Amino acid sequence: MEFSKHIIILVTFVLLFNCKTDKREVSEIQKVKTGYQIEPVDIQHVKVTDEFWLPIIKRVQEKTIDYAIAKCEEEGRFDNFLIAGGQMKGEVRGEMPFDDTDVYKIIEGASNSLISAPNKELETLVDSLVSIIKVGQEKDGYLTTWRTIDPAKPPATWVQTPKGERWDGLFMSHELYNAGHLYEAAAVHYRATGKRNFLDIAIKNADLMVKSFGDEEGKIKAVPGHQIIESGLIKLYKITGNEDYINLAKYFLDNRGNPENHELFGPYSQDSIPVIQQEEVVGHSVRAVYMYAAMTDIAAIQNDSLYEAAVNKLWDNMVSKKIYITGGIGAKHEGEQFGANYELPNLTAYNETCAAIGDVYWNHRMHNLYGDVKYFDVIERTLYNGLISGLSLDGTNFFYPNALESDGVYKSNRGSCTRQAWFDCSCCPTNVIRFVPSIPGLIYSKGNNSVYVNLYASNEAEIDLDGKAVKVTQNTSYPWNGTVNMTVEADSEVTVKFRVPGWSRNEVLPSDLYSYANSYESQPTLSINGEKVETSIQDGYLEVTRNWSADDAIEIHFPMEVRAVKANENVEEDRGKLSLEYGPLVYAVEEVDNPNFDTISVSANDQFSVQKEDILEGVNTISNDQLKAIPYYAWSNRGVNKMKVWLPETKNNN
Predict the structure, then answer these.
(1) If you ran DSSP here, which 8-state letter would residue 651 be given?
(2) What is the tens place of the pLDDT at every residue in 440-477?
(3) What DSSP state is assigned to residue 158?
(4) What is the pLDDT at residue 10?
(5) What is the pLDDT of residue 654?
(6) Residue 631 to residue 616: CA distance in whole angstroms
(7) CB within 8 A of 563, min separation 6: which ones?
(8) What distance lies between CA 181 and its chain's CA centroid?
(9) Sign of the C-alpha dihedral, residues 159, 164, 165, 168?
(10) I need a labelling partner for 363 at 20 to 30 A (CA). Which of 87, 94, 124, 518 fits?
């Protein structure tokens, strides 16, 4: 890692402000019940060796984090904390009221990296960042630097502050959004290091929130304009056992759509009707999925049937009518929001990278609640396609929106036809940083005396299953082929549930929004020590219960074929078109590979060859005499050119 130039600057502040970073006794922290049936296997117990995911994770750890720190330094993100704390003079740097969160998300990503790969140099850097944040925190715990520097002068003109004081204009001030990312990052940092330096900053701020907001006399009746403080508060509750935090999260959720509490922000902020009455995903897509994730937490922890019913209806609406073939969500540039049912344009698709990340968080919680494979079908499709597309192969360029078509003219990516090196609104690059190092924590879950194998990637894992030690290894070239070799070692009889991906069950997504246009008769197979195991697919998993030995050679084979996909007829934009998939990957055609780009068409009966090529860091291409296609996530890494995911269907001349 190349952090030296930043560490020289930042360590100075650690010494200057004497920020304590000593570890404290874990006994200070309480454990609470999560309410979930299923529990993810923490990333500290999963060592990824995968040829697909490990390079992406390392790219973020070794390049993107350092790159983002340099950008934050250049654009004054760190200066704002020092100016707010009186250690520097100047006006607010940057153009967004939530610029503070870029620093928090970098710390979260770095902390996730520390969990799976301890690194003293990186840990020192993180301590330096925490020390700077502490400088910007006011004595009572308040922490939003632009407000502290000049309460009446927000950095963005669209932030209205008629009173020029704290909590003024919560619709767009992002004060509570800033707090949410602070709490999320502090929780991960504490888990990674055992240090209380960042956690104490978050708790001091959360305590101020508890004192400031609520229905009691003297408190402010309000909800955040941009949700995430709710899930952040719940994470602090899980660490501290302080019920004030989860109660405040529930207060914020309960009062959305309540005109007696505040002047409603409207559907854009999911604030037109109470959350338990919401059945359609609407408004700003990132706000929405962050809120749905917190609602799922409440449903689980407090056994709230009304919240549970609401998140199920919202999930069904999204997956049945408002999700792209790539797993992207949020159709419209205007308001970065969901469109109407079946409104899924391609050239102008928004599909914010942050929304894809938030959707994974939500679906992971839904899987923890039910253990149903369908949530990981959404997660897998999003991960391999519409999420990692947000990061370039060099780790320093980014998509904010992720379009499904490009004409080489329309500037879909906030003023560019291709990825950009940074944005004035840099939420997506830093969200990628916080998310990607956490991916190993998605691979396995545990619960009900079962180990759930949710994703396929080469790794070694050690799982504590209700006191039973279970060791699992995977060796695979997935997603390039569908063969997975595994071993399981356990002290006693254990059930292992091997997920059968939706594409291998002949299901694009768990709805009728998309379907396969060509037939697929192949079935996945599971063998142990060379003998085929006759087990049916139960709820999307191949389930085997036995006394496992390290000598047991497990092989799962998911036959991969090029598949043609058609959209529901209600999706007007995709009528008469097909898209192509291979395994979990959605494919796209780029003009750079296809001089005949404007005349390409495909049929469900077309035959394709699949070939590993030395392009785009080694991908499987699919081709025939009409076209050559690459994985969607890798598009736009070779300059500006035309691209399509949905291709005209070849007309039948018979």
Answers:
(1) P
(2) 999 999 998 999 999 999 999 999 999 999 999 999 99
(3) T
(4) 57
(5) 46
(6) 9
(7) 503, 516, 517, 518, 520, 580, 581, 582
(8) 13
(9) negative
(10) 518
Q: How far is Cα 76 from Cα 88, in angstroms, rounded to an integer?
A: 11
Residue that is written with structure tokens 């085929």 in the block: 532
Q: What is the pLDDT of residue 538?
A: 86
Where residue 241 falls (left for φ over 0; alpha for ψ -120 to 50; beta otherwise) is: left
The pLDDT of residue 26: 38
Residue carrying structure tokens 């390290």? 550
DSSP code of 491?
S
Which residue type, as a one-letter code, is found at position 366?
M
Asked whether the beta carbons of 592 and 638 are under 8 A apart, the reply is: yes
Q: Structure tokens of 567?
A: 């959209």
Distance of CA 524 to the CA centre of its chain: 28
3 state DSSP class of 447: strand
In percent, the amount of the chain with pLDDT more than 90 equals 90
The tokens 């759930």 sit on which residue? Answer: 452
Tokens of 409: 């003219």
Taking residues 118-147, report their average pLDDT.
Answer: 96
The long-range contacts involving 88-95, CB below 8 angstroms and separated by at least 24 positions, are 91/149, 91/150, 91/153, 92/145, 92/146, 92/149, 92/150, 92/153, 92/155, 94/155, 94/424, 95/155, 95/156, 95/424, 95/425
Beta strand 483-490 with 39-40: parallel, antiparallel or unpaired?
unpaired
Q: What is the pLDDT of residue 6?
A: 53
Q: Provide the pLDDT confidence category of residue 247 given band limits of 50, 70 and 90.
A: very high
Give 41 or 25, the one with higher predicted confidence: 41
In angstroms, rounded to a whole number, what is the distance separating the alpha carbons of residues 189 and 108? 6
* pLDDT band at residue 27 under the 50/70/90 scheme: very low
Per the CB < 8 A criterion, the answer to whether 14 and 131 are in contact is yes
Q: Is 147 helix (H, G, I), strand (E, B) or coil?
A: helix
pLDDT at 7 over 90: no
Phi and psi (nearest 5°) for 83? -65, -45
N residues, the chain: 654
Q: Is the pLDDT confidence value at 12 over 90?
A: no
Residue 405 CB coordination number (10 Å): 18
In angstroms, rounded to a whole number, what is the distance separating the alpha carbons of residues 99 and 156? 11
Could you tell me the CA-to-CA distances from 408 to 99, 474, 520 in Å, in that order? 31, 41, 35
User: Which residue matches tokens 């191949």?
Assistant: 542
Residue 35 has a pLDDT of: 85
